[in-house]
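Troubleshooting log. The previous structure file for this entry was overwritten by mistake, so regenerating from the original sequence record. Sequence copied from the archived sheet and checked twice against the printout by T.R.
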Amino acid sequence: MELLNYLDKHFLTKEQLIQATQISELQLQRYHDEGVMPKPSYKLNIQWESESFFGPHSEKQTVEYFAKGYASWIGIIEAKQDFNSIYQCFANRYMAKIAQLRNLRYESSNPKFSSEISQYIEEEWQHFIEGTYGLCTRSGLPEDIAAKELASTEINALLAQDNLNQKQIHRLNRFVDLLDETSAYFALHERSISSRTKLIDIPRRKYNLDCSVSKSK
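Regenerated output below.
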């Protein structure tokens, strides 16, 4: 029941997504087939068994769960119509978020966020369509994806060093806070092996990070 509670709180079932967007199941499948709509992040195969006065009963059901942000993404699909325009919307929003973070001094020397960003976004798009980011970010949308990848990249680079000075610890704190804002909470059975544990919880304990660094500094 813990998993069901988590999914019901943080995700939309396929039926809820269809109801929220007023599209048909056939339209949703068409968007999947065209490669413009992310796949579900979770798929549960559930078998129910019950007993009552009328005797035992069993039933099987498959339930698909989507990130809540995908309701707005369907709006993008319907507005843009063709694959190239939809992909370009994803790319533009991703790059705009990186630029915004750079202006807030969340800087990176990694070329995948500068000279190689176009190629990198092509890879990110594939993870997006597979539903991966619907699982590991809060919204599943380009802005959270960009922030998560930038933060994860810089945190990993800092943690790879043997000793961090106070300036580096301050930088680590800011990127950990950024990742915390965009990272999913993860289901209980996934949490211990998740990026949240590795890149947020453990660094905060190890370096006694205060979780209150101003995002504008």
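Residues 3 and 187 are 6 Å apart (CA to CA). Archived copy saved in two places this time.
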